Amino acid sequence: MTERLLVLEDGPYRLVLDANLGGHLVEFSINGRNALAVGKPEVGSTFWPSPQAAWGWPPPQVLDKGPYSVDSLDNGIHVSSPICPQTHLRLWKHFQLVGGYATATYVMRNCGDKPVRYAPWEITRIGGGMTFYETNQTALPHSTGQMVYSRGVAWHCYQPHQQTQHEKVFGNGSRGWLANHYQGLLLVKQFDPVPLDLVAPGEAEVEIYAHGDIDNAYIEIEQQGAYQPMPPGGDIRWRVLWHLRAWDGDASIGSETLLCAVRQTLTTS
What we know:
Layout: E1 5-10, E2 13-18, E3 24-30, E4 33-34, E5 45-50, H1 61-64, E6 69-72, E7 77-80, E8 89-98, E9 101-110, E10 116-126, E11 130-134, E12 148-150, E13 153-157, E14 167-171, E15 177-182, E16 185-190, E17 206-210, E18 219-224, E19 228-230, E20 235-246, H2 256-265
Antiparallel strand pairs: 1-2, 2-3, 3-4, 5-10, 6-7, 7-8, 8-9, 9-20, 10-18, 10-19, 11-13, 11-15, 12-13, 14-17, 15-16, 16-20, 17-18
């Protein structure tokens, strides 16, 4: 199926969505430099219902990689999925790009006749680099990736040449942001923190997947919202703010200047 690309531009920023690829974001760029992974086994940024145990693997095709309808291009990009026969969910995605950051708003609706419970889950693919988030907790014991803790922040440095398998980190207790620095770009995703008792079972508020293939190196930086009941016809609505800036300063583990750059980008809107 050919691409069906929808574009938003605001000054140096450009956001591109592929409506034929599950409404994936395939570009979020500044001055022509794309922060998202392309040309990899998995690309761009997608959305799944959590927990994974509710649908197994692979993700439901209708929600993840099937074609989405373009509902409107007024005030941003509005797209929606068909009803997923596996989960009975329908998904809406709304993206805006204004004021130097992007807003992603997701709505999940239970189109079945029985109550269900899910959490929203955003999965963003990047070529590599260092991923970090502020937290008051160490990674969960079943994590297989290595983290370093400095300045109240958990740091993950992707080193695919040292991996013998795919790795995954599961972390809770974030301060509502998840950042990545790669090839001079600093991407920050901002969201509402999730209390521990509202984390989806078997999952975590923040997850980092490190692909263990040096020839197809990429990572996934992921965050989830609150695990909530959905009666028939009920919705879950969730918003994520995306910030992007060039950063050629100190990007080492524990860098105070890098942390200051992240905190300066966060918005209270």
